[in-house]
Model the fold of this input.
Amino acid sequence: MNPQTIGNIIRELREDKGLTQMQLAARLNVSDKTVSKWETGGGYPDITQIEPLAKTLIWDHFAVKKVKEPDEAHMPAIEEIEDEYYITFNHPMSKDHYISFVAAVAYDGVEIIKLYPEGNPELRVRRSRTRYIYFFCNKDGLFRCKMK
Ligand SMILES: [Fe+2]
Done:
């Protein structure tokens, strides 16, 4: 994933949370110039920033919402293809009801795939070390699947 794509995801999540670059920087103990650099594709967050960044922008964001097991309408189809999981959803992707992101959580990191309204709800994530797949429906909340 190129730095601009990562930067766009950081900016969208930060704005969803209603934080300024300065406020996010303060929570992560970095300068607002650093946050600006990430968001404009001028560089990747340092590996040591990934966990606090994910905690601040993702997990804290959904802390008040219950993480659910997927129901029938949100059950992903997950195929193992070589060293990846190929994940598809039979879920609406309209402007007002869509899966907004998928996060593959491993013990050593998080891979986040942003999905968009009117886009295809399909993606690939690396298989090795992935223990949980989290995904968020903008109407129905956060879901989690435990992987083998
Ligand atoms: Fe939904």
